[in-house]
Amino acid sequence: MLLHKSDPLTIFNPEESENLGAVFYDTGISAGFPAPAEDFSQQRLSLDNELVKNKEATFYARVSGQSMIGAGLDDNDLLVIDRSLQPSHNKIAVCFLDGEFTVKRLKVDNEGIWLKPENPNYPIIRITDANDFVIWGIVTNVIKKV
């Protein structure tokens, strides 16, 4: 059975941050031929406004480890996690499993629930009644450093 815990996990709450936003140039930055500089129009952009659909149910957490590199989630990436989204097959979820937090892809079939890493060096985890298991939220975005 897929569960949502009602108490929020406070890693970083978007509502607690000032929502000033950074400077945003409202034009595409060309990855091909250069674009004329005069085409840029400047305004303010808040990443919370772009990445967070439900502020009351959204939090951020940092990835630790390599088990999800095949899904583009690398060590130290920042995840945007929405607790209001329904967990379902093939979604990437942040879960609490037997006293530890983990991020994995959900596999739901007639045989049960599985947590599938996106790295062949890590095993698939089958969830049983013996596990202390809660789905904290669904990953909606990842923020990377380059």
Number of helices, counting only DSSP H or I runs of 4 residues or more:
1
User: What do we call the CATH topology of the domain at 53-143?
Assistant: Umud Fragment, subunit A
Q: How are the strands of the biggest sheet laid out side by side?
A: 3-4-9-5-6-7-8
Question: What's the order of the H and E elements?
Answer: EEHEEEEEEE
Describe the structure.
This protein has 146 residues and is mainly β. The protein has a domain of 91 residues: Umud Fragment, subunit A (Ribbon). Helix content is 3%, strand content 36%. It has one helix and nine strands, in the order E-E-H-E-E-E-E-E-E-E. The strands form two sheets. It has a seven-stranded antiparallel sheet with strand order 3-4-9-5-6-7-8, with no helix packed on it. Strands 1-2 form a two-stranded antiparallel sheet. A hairpin with an 8-residue loop joins strand 7 and strand 8. It is globular, with a radius of gyration of 18 Å. The N terminus is likely disordered.
SSE order and pairing:
Elements: E1 22-25, E2 42-45, H1 47-51, E3 58-62, E4 78-82, E5 92-97, E6 100-109, E7 112-116, E8 125-127, E9 133-143
Antiparallel strand pairs: 1-2, 3-4, 4-9, 5-6, 5-9, 6-7, 7-8
Short description:
The chain has one helix and nine strands. With 146 residues, it is mostly beta strands. The strands form two sheets. Strands 3-4-9-5-6-7-8 form a seven-stranded antiparallel beta sheet, with no helix packed on it. The chain has a two-stranded antiparallel ribbon with strand order 1-2.
